Amino acid sequence: MSDLSRRPGRAVVERPAPDAPGNGAPGPTRGRIVGVDAARGAALLGMVATHVIPPLDAQGRLTTAHLVAAGRAAAAFAVLAGVALTLVTARAAHPRTSTFARAVCIGAIGLALGLTSTPVAVILPYYAVFFVLALPLLRAPRWVLAVVAASALLVEPVLSQLVRPHLPEPLMSNPSFDDLVVSPWRLALTILLSGYYPALAWIGYLCAGMFVGRLDLRRTRVAGLLLGTGAAVAVAASALSWLLLGPLGGRDALLATSSVLPGVGPIAPSEVPSLLEGGLYGSTPTQSWWWLAVDTPHTSAPLDLLHTTGTAVALLGAALLVARLGAAAAVVIWPLAAVGSMTLTWYTLHAWVLSTELPRGDSYAWLYLQQVIPMLVLASLWRLTGRRGPLEAVISALARRASAQHSPGSPAPPRASSA
User: Fold this and answer.
1) pLDDT (0 to 100) of residue 364
2) Using one digit for the tens of pLDDT, what is the confidence trace for 364-392?
3) Which of 60, 177, 241, 316 qualifies as a FRET site for 104, CA 20 to 30 Å off?
4) What is the pLDDT of residue 251?
5) What is the mean pLDDT of residues 265-275?
């Protein structure tokens, strides 16, 4: 779960200039796009729900939080990070330098959280690697982003299935500074291929978001297209998974296969149905190719990646449409957009709080409200000040400093929109 930096909150934005012919580069943008922030806020609240509410209820049924948000919330966070990355770097004088500086800062925060006892599978170290992998793509044409996204979402899982049996066991704890010093090679392989958010597959989310970020997100037609296309992709991926696992015999084949879950151990046949519903730990067993047919959360299988990319794009389209409804939508959109404008701060605080003795309550719903209500209220009040979130402000300042050092004596680049 997981992330990112931000700008003063202005809902009114200037119409972006069109792309230069043939180069696919983003036009200049200013201000904040409220729908993007609201989608990011919704993704964060979904991640919090999956962290606080268990996947199964007392009767052994999947909880609503898991049914709605498991896998989808984290994927939306990654896709929207790609959208934000495009908006942030659109007017940056040295986009690679500033993005690398952001990646280092985000990675450091994530590795620090890895030293705590938080039960959250911290996404920030993976995010840092996503951003580093995206450096050559910041000004790439749209077709390059599309090719990289398709390769990561559809081809990388197949190659991973071939390669992972020959790799060391992944780290099953959160990456930390200790791992960086003691086992850097194993840490790198975990983050890139076999961890909870394998970067070589999840870079597809980021590229999909970067592609979407090149569109004119202020147009109602674009928002509707995102909603419709995203929903269609999500439904098609799930339908294909159902067809492969059901009528075509994939589920029966998995039940008859002796599989080993990476980092966990052998899977009994009786455990397969619950895993197919509840989710895995970032990658699939490699003993059967049928595992690539699942759309189960956190499997990084092609249909899981496609489904969650679709739901993320649909979420963004829906948020952009709701944001255009005017005052009637403000009650919902304002608090979500406030949280979404400072997701790094709230995600970090949320992960840290869960590592302490602070959470209390008689029910998981109450624990969730203890996390979410302060987020919505305090973020809304903070947004009124027009300031970035605390961590967002620090990272933005460091990124600007890095850019200035890259080009001594040059003027600071203009501030861009909604990262």
Assistant:
1) 84
2) 888 899 889 999 999 999 999 988 999 99
3) 316
4) 93
5) 85
**Structural domain boundaries in the chain:** 34-235+316-406
SS (H, E, C) the chain: CCCCCCCCCCCCCCCCCCCCCCCCCCCCCCCCCHHHHHHHHHHHHHHHHHHHCCCECCCCCECHHHHHHCCHHHHHHHHHHHHHHHHHHCCCCCHHHHHHHHHHHHHHHHHHHCCCCCCCCCCHHHHHHHHHHHHHHCCCCHHHHHHHHHHHHHHHHHHHHHHHHHCCCCCCCCCCHHHHHHCHHHHHHHHHHHCCCCHHHHHHHHHHHHHHHCCCCCCHHHHHHHHHHHHHHHHHHHHHHHHHHCCCCHHHHHHCCCEEECCCEEECHHHHHHHHHHCCCCCCCCCCHHHHHCCCCCCCCHHHHHHHHHHHHHHHHHHHHHHCCCHHHHHHHHHHHHHHCCHHHHHHHHHHHCCCCCCCCCCHHHHHHHHHHHHHHHHHHHHHCCCCCHHHHHHHHHHHHHHHHHCCCCCCCCCCCCC
User: Where is pLDDT greater, at 257 or 191?
Assistant: 191
Environment class of 214 (CB within 10 Å of its CB; exposed 0-12, middle 13-18, buried 19+): buried
Cut 0.85: pTM above it: yes
pLDDT of residue 325: 86
